[in-house]
Amino acid sequence: MARSEKQKMLAGELYRAADAEIQADAAAAKAWMVRYNASLGLPPAERRALLAERLAAVGADAVIRPPFFCDYGTNISIGDGVFLNFNCVILDVVAVSIGDGTQIGPLVQILTADHPRDPEERRAGLEFGRPIRIGRNVWIGGGAILTPGVTVGDDAIIGAGSVVTRDVAAGATVVGNPARPVARRA
């Protein structure tokens, strides 16, 4: 049986984003974002209930300060005590998981969406995604960008404005563009 474009997308295979089912999911996410991004003045419990409507998993005491932007939301899992500050973007064409206690600064971009290197495939409207996994107790500084397919280990720190193009080891501190490890201070 032929796989749907959405099934291909979720599997990280080449897919057509213009597919009707995928576009319907994107439209539902946009409608949800309008509601969520208008919720800043609501009590935290009401904002959390809105998150639970759309995200794959929302841990206890998790907070995402609006405005927040995503492709679908349904591929995002956030653990207990996770905090995302204002204006974060998560392009979640495949899974994004954020571990317990992780803190994410404003304007951070978590980007699973990728595009073929072959120009003919791009012209044909094909895309793919690579999942991003962020461990527990990670600190991601404001304006950082995580590129498709990276894994960030537990207790890591990503400096503000860094562009993460490779996996970050547990406990490491990375800074810069591209992000590189820095020596620990005693």
TrEMBL record:
Its transmembrane ranges are none
Q: Which InterPro entries match?
A: Hexapep, Hexapep_transf_CS, Hexapeptide_acetyltransf, Mac_dom, Trimer_LpxA-like_sf
Asked if tRNA-binding is a keyword of the record, the answer is no
Pfam families this protein is in?
A: Hexapep, Mac
Domain annotation Maltose/galactoside acetyltransferase: ranges: 6-60
Family, according to the entry, reads as follows: Belongs to the transferase hexapeptide repeat family.
> In its UniProt entry, what is this protein called?
Maltose O-acetyltransferase
